[in-house]
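Each field is set out as follows.
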Amino acid sequence: MTTSIIKTASTIYWYKSLFSLSLLGVLSMSISCSDDAGPSEDDLIAEQLQAIIDEKVGADFEKLVGVSVSIRVNGEERWSLTGGLSRAGEPITPDMTFGLGSITKTAIAATILKLEEEGKLNINDPIENYVDFNNPNISGSITIFDLLAHFSGIDEYLNHPDLWPTAEGNLDAALPTDLLVSFIGEPIFAPGAAYQYTNANYLLLSLIIEEVTQQTTGQAMRQRFWEPLGLNTIFFGAHDTYVQPLAGAWRDSNGDGTLEDITDEYRNAYNSVFYGPAGLFGSASDMSMWATHLYGGDALTQESKDKMLFSYFDIPDPIFVGYGLGVRKNVYAGQTMWGHTGGVRGYGAAMFYNPFHGVSIAMLNNQSRSEDGPLLRHELVQELLAVVYASLQ
């Protein structure tokens, strides 16, 4: 019903009954207010954000296959957005889980700091106090802090020439962690001498967690974080049951420029290889909430957060400017944010938090080995946050 129709009707009813006029006036005001209100500010911002996502996704190799995004302000999820496909004919939905890659390091570091709060370890202790890794290339004098901040100097196990042939030889068979540790070669430098980002650091940290807690890494994280915080879609692939629906994973496996659906390859072998450095999965909504709890909430004590959110090595880069304990210090849309990016076979991700504005973002994507993938993911996060920050001015 339009306002003009209501006015015509009210004129007729005036001659019939003053009571009817009053009643119709109230109705007219209600409808007029509803019609005049239009879309909310958040709805208008959502349209801008969705347009940015839609421009980045598509079937073209130079686009992202699928994307799930969650953006929170002071813990409230203001925008949940998706775009593109999971698998052929299946669109991405907000409840889908994705491989998180190195965002896993945020949870491994948090678990180590939580164990320190529980009095079970000290991050300044040498690792030989907790585990004998039985590899002459791993010095027992390396401290837990060295592993957390990437100051250990140990070599990268993921680069060993036997790793992927072994994993791909039987995707149903998990690679034992002692085999992964044996793939760590001669050290790059002496412990504490320099900074070198190395996934092997977080493999060893996950094994320290297991020795100290007598739990699997998955159990230790779930008990301390996922269950208490109600983050029910986050799981550790090597130990936990998959939370469905899982977004399809896409990868250009042979470098011919064509992405293939590799979702069915995610079995025991892959999960065992990625382990502590990159073994988590989760939904965008839970990951943006994890960033809020971890960096802006009470998942850890303030003392632990102060240790974590400190750049121990400044990096001469306009975007990735420093590293704390399992956390990157990045600049997006002119704002300093803490979190991590991630990439594993078939997936790419970013999760960051701005303590000044209380903004957290999780951007999950289901492809890897696209030459433009990392750039597109960065551009997507950058452009989304530019709109969000402008709306908060």
Remarks:
- Residues 1-35 have pLDDT under 50 and may be disordered.
- The first strand starts at residue 66 and ends at 73.
- The radius of gyration is 25 Å.
- Residues 18-37 form the longest helix (20 residues).
